[in-house]
Amino acid sequence: ATWTPDAGWHDAGLRPYGPLSLDPATATLHYAQSIFEGLKAYRHEDGSIWTFRPDANGTRFQRSAARMALPELPVESFVESLDLLVRTDSEWVPSGGETSLYLRPFMFASEVFLGVRPAKHVTYSVIASPAGAYFASGVKPVSIWLSSEYTRAAPGGTGAAKCAGNYAASLVAQQEALVNGCDQVCFLDAQERKWVEELGGMNLYFVRADGSITTPSLTGTILEGITRDSILTLAADLQHKVEERAVSIDEWREGVASGEITEVFACGTAAVVTPLGRLAWNGGELRMGDEPGPVTQEIRTALLDIQYGRAQDRHGWMHRIM
Ligand code: PMP
């Protein structure tokens, strides 16, 4: 669909997948006035197809749009666009295992001009791609590189928005992680370089010896993950004490060393719940175990069981498409 100030949203419709032809002066190519979302369509055993909390993605998309001076897309239109695409291409929703159809809604400045101001021509689109299980052969702990040089987001910046620029800024740190033999990068806060924020594309949780779990609070500089939010509820359902608060990197290191922190996991749409096995930084490393811990596995299974229709959807999270 297209948005202009006079006509609002118009020209909505299904088009065959193919290249976009863009004028070289298209605003988004220069100033990254661009946002996106990521969610999955799941095929249940009875063949029905569902999304998980698409209204939450739609609400986050609205917040991202507001932060990037992009027009508001009603949540109902967002959800409807996903439903329409999935219904039309339902044969692409795989079945079996932890497979899904990954959905990528995005909005960008499609006006042709070189001045710096919010665009007056904006495009919204959704594409989809079948996704296999994130872990092909059993859940394996991943290794994390603690970035000391780079931060992801500063107060007043765009850290809480799912905008293209955040990811552009994180790439060099992700590259550093790979060069240092790690899978993912972990960012600290920009001001004190002391507080744990999140990974490149996942939020973090710490499990304590008493079974309680802690996640860094939303400070305005981390992405409000929908998986993170769902786990706050799920973990409480499973009788874990849940806490949102600031966690320092020293608390992480000392907690693992002393046995106070027994498991650390990351969470997000793509990898669901992923155990962390190792934290490395310039001059040191911390080992956190070669096998996923029991609480990590319990929460991972509880979430997947809801998403794949094997457990009762007590919170009304699932949205049936067909
Ligand atoms: N943080 C960042 C930076 C992300 O890109 C993502 C993925 N959207 C997440 C956290 C996890 O969010 P969600 O659970 O909504 O996928």
Automatic annotation (TrEMBL):
N6-(pyridoxal phosphate)lysine PTM sites in chain numbering: K162
Enzyme class per UniProt: transferase
One GO MF term attached to the UniProt entry: branched-chain-amino-acid transaminase activity
The EC number(s) this enzyme carries: 2.6.1.42
UniProt catalytic activity: L-isoleucine + 2-oxoglutarate = (S)-3-methyl-2-oxopentanoate + L-glutamate; L-leucine + 2-oxoglutarate = 4-methyl-2-oxopentanoate + L-glutamate; L-valine + 2-oxoglutarate = 3-methyl-2-oxobutanoate + L-glutamate
Cofactor(s), by name: pyridoxal 5'-phosphate
SUPFAM superfamilies: D-aminoacid aminotransferase-like PLP-dependent enzymes
Signal peptide (from-to): none
One annotated GO biological process: isoleucine biosynthetic process
Ribonucleoprotein in keyword set: no
Associated pathway: Amino-acid biosynthesis; L-valine biosynthesis; L-valine from pyruvate: step 4/4; Amino-acid biosynthesis; L-leucine biosynthesis; L-leucine from 3-methyl-2-oxobutanoate: step 4/4; Amino-acid biosynthesis; L-isoleucine biosynthesis; L-isoleucine from 2-oxobutanoate: step 4/4
Pfam family, one: Aminotran_4
Keywords linked to the UniProt accession: Amino-acid biosynthesis, Aminotransferase, Branched-chain amino acid biosynthesis, Pyridoxal phosphate, Transferase
PROSITE patterns: AA_TRANSFER_CLASS_4
InterPro entries: Aminotrans_IV, Aminotrans_IV_CS, Aminotransferase-like, B_amino_transII, BCAT-like_C, BCAT-like_N, BCAT_family
NCBIfam families reported in the protein's UniProt record: ilvE_II, PRK13357.1
Family the UniProt entry places it in: Belongs to the class-IV pyridoxal-phosphate-dependent aminotransferase family.
The name this protein goes by in its record: Branched-chain-amino-acid aminotransferase
Lineage: Bacteria, Bacillati, Actinomycetota, Actinomycetes, Jiangellales
